[in-house]
From TrEMBL:
<feature type="DNA-binding region" description="H-T-H motif">
    <location>
        <begin position="53"/>
        <end position="72"/>
    </location>
</feature>
<dbReference type="Pfam" id="PF13972">
    <property type="entry name" value="TetR"/>
</dbReference>
<feature type="domain" description="HTH tetR-type">
    <location>
        <begin position="30"/>
        <end position="90"/>
    </location>
</feature>
<dbReference type="InterPro" id="IPR050624">
    <property type="entry name" value="HTH-type_Tx_Regulator"/>
</dbReference>
<dbReference type="Pfam" id="PF00440">
    <property type="entry name" value="TetR_N"/>
</dbReference>
<dbReference type="InterPro" id="IPR001647">
    <property type="entry name" value="HTH_TetR"/>
</dbReference>
<dbReference type="InterPro" id="IPR009057">
    <property type="entry name" value="Homeodomain-like_sf"/>
</dbReference>
<dbReference type="GO" id="GO:0003677">
    <property type="term" value="F:DNA binding"/>
</dbReference>
<protein>
    <submittedName>
        <fullName>Transcriptional regulator, TetR family</fullName>
    </submittedName>
</protein>
<dbReference type="InterPro" id="IPR025722">
    <property type="entry name" value="TetR"/>
</dbReference>
<keyword id="KW-0238">DNA-binding</keyword>
Length: 236
């Protein structure tokens, strides 16, 4: 009986060790996938999506092409994973604005997040049309996400109107204002890439500033005071 119990205990130890090894391998796979994503984003940002292949990414990481292909079978799968990460990070930014500060401060903080986000995933914003046309699955997801972001931004602006930071406007005027903001966000980097020289590209972007310039004519006195204290005070 003791021998049987001893055998069972040993078996349990072996199983436990096996589970730990499997768990560690799984953790390493997740880590490798994230490293691939991070490396791909860096290379795409530097040279563009079309210039970078899986071989470039594998070489940069010091891994085999087979190892990379094991995690992402093609460029579409890799870009889809990157875009899923982008969506998750931006969703976190919108959720963060829901919990801290008033509606005006929330809008200010969101615009700062959007600006930083633009540069973190610079390649995607510069090549968005090319990516959208080449990869239908990303195209569908992108359109769905844009609609969600439009609704979230509209809710935020309407709340700021309700709170007295902006004047009451018709639904059509609000829609046109939000469309202008969306166009700036979507194509700001493309405009900057085409019109700026190499030295000015290294300077701080003014995307948030231009969006605020669109919003300023609609501000109430309370809105202007908040703008001076919060936005101008932060150097935006």
């Amino acid at each position: 009986m003791q021998g049987f119990l001893y055998f069972c205990n040993n078996k349990r130890i072996i199983c436990r060790r096996h589970f730990q090894v499997v768990k560690m391998k799984k953790s390493n796979k997740i880590s490798t996938k994230q490293r691939i994503i991070d490396t791909a984003v860096d290379l795409f940002n530097k040279d563009g999506v079309q210039s970078i292949t899986s071989r470039h990414i594998a070489k940069e990481m010091g891994i085999s092409n087979g190892n990379l292909d094991y995690h992402f079978r093609n460029k579409e799968a890799l870009l889809l994973a990157i875009y899923e990460q982008m969506r998750a990070e931006m969703s976190d930014s919108y959720r963060a604005t829901d919990t801290v500060g008033g509606s005006f401060e929330q809008l200010h903080r969101l615009l700062l997040h959007l600006e930083a986000f633009q540069y973190k995933f610079r390649f995607f914003n510069l090549d968005v049309l090319e990516i959208s046309r080449a990869y239908p699955q990303i195209n569908r997801l992108l359109k769905h996400t844009i609609q969600i972001r439009k609704e979230q931004m509209a809710d935020m602006l309407k709340q700021a109107i309700t709170d007295g930071f902006f004047v009451q406007e018709t639904e059509e005027n609000i829609r046109q204002l939000l469309l202008s903001i969306r166009i700036i966000i979507t194509f700001w980097l493309s405009h900057e890439e085409l019109t700026s020289d190499s030295s000015s590209k290294k300077q701080k972007s003014n995307m948030s500033k231009h969006i605020w310039q669109l919003l300023r004519p609609y501000m109430t006195e309370r809105g202007h005071l908040s703008y001076q204290a919060l936005v101008e005070g932060s150097g935006v």
